Amino acid sequence: MKYELLSPVGNYPMLYSAIKGGCDAVYFGVKGFNMREGAKNFSLRDLPKIKKICDEKHVKKYLTLNTVIYNSELKKTEEIIKKAKKYIDAIICWDLSVVNLCRKHNVPINISTQASVSNTSSAKFYKNLGAKTIVLARELNLKQIKQISKIVNVECFCHGAMCVAISGRCFSSQFIHNCSANRGKCAHPCRRAWTVTDDAGNQLKLENNKVMSAKDLCTLPFIEEMKKAGIKSFKIEGRNRSPEYVYTVTKIYRNALDKKLSQEEITNSIEELKKVYNRGFSSGFYFRTPTADDFSYTENGEQTEKKMYIGRVYSYLPKVGVGLVKIHAGELKIGDEIYLLNDKISIERIKVESMEKNNNKIEIAKKGDEIGIKMPKVPKNTDVYLIRKEN
What we know:
This protein is α/β, with parallel strands linked by helices. It has ten helices and 22 strands.
């Protein structure tokens, strides 16, 4: 059976990387109304280009319109739907005003997890409204999901960040920073360290003072059980994350959906997932209600690798397959691994096997050096990042 793998994109490097990783569909927002307002996001002018890129690889395109919508915004919402219609395959939404506008303009709808669909009655309601797919509430276990999957096509998150408020409705960012999470502007105060203070001013530092910072979801160890639960679409969270995150996670889950992984393959794949940004891994609600063990101990992530900008490709010599790089920061050594990142390509990861400066081989390149490195063909002004191992 073919399962849909849905990847998050917020800019062109993420889009190219998701496609390279093997996604079946991508979801993204346009500036104005989406739950990741802090991401770079696309504009309506980008939609023809997105459609062209995706159609060439037979990748579906889902536009998110899943924030709280106010009365004064209905006209603008309708304009977005009308302009986007011919460039997308469906709109992810939950507000009934958006549902009605999509019905009015004959745009397919997928119901967002923001609707918190958690039972068969709600599933039937949205199906009768024309929903093709429903992204279920995160609070469900596999047994509950299996029941709903008999009613409608079901989509569930398989990997990525989880909110302490589970399916949304969090107001901590609103209270502290006047930035509404339900309008896509969450400032993530939950991810910080907190100290408890009583009325007398006495302070207590908790054993884990990241008391609201949930670990990331990782379903790879039980992906086969998710398939048996009737889930047809597997969704990766991460529109605020990096191209290397999107590529790595998409590639690994593509492999897991296409075949049954051995235990060794699962173990190795989880080590790969640990290299890109994460806050530790949890199984979410799929087997039980999360406990204290499902909260993170880190503020800046537990990834085993990080990238550091070191320079830029200022020219490419196609006859010899060499990129000419100006080193802007730090130093680069033979054996180092680097990322190549540009708006026109998917992320590339290569190992530096040799370097030349002024036609002489060198072992180390330092700030200010102009060097040649063997690499795949990349556009001018491609950024070069050194991959650093974290302890």
